[in-house]
Amino acid sequence: HLAQKYDIPLYRFPIDESAFEVGFDTHITMLPDGFYRAV
Q: In this structure, are residues 28 and 38 in contact, taking their beta carbons and an 8 Å threshold?
């Protein structure tokens, strides 16, 4: 998936739950490069 990470929306969030709103139930995976990817 890392090879195609640029084919999907990337979001840079602080490492803080407050960055996510209630109801945001999409699973977030932290990539080694510090980006989060919605999967």
A: yes
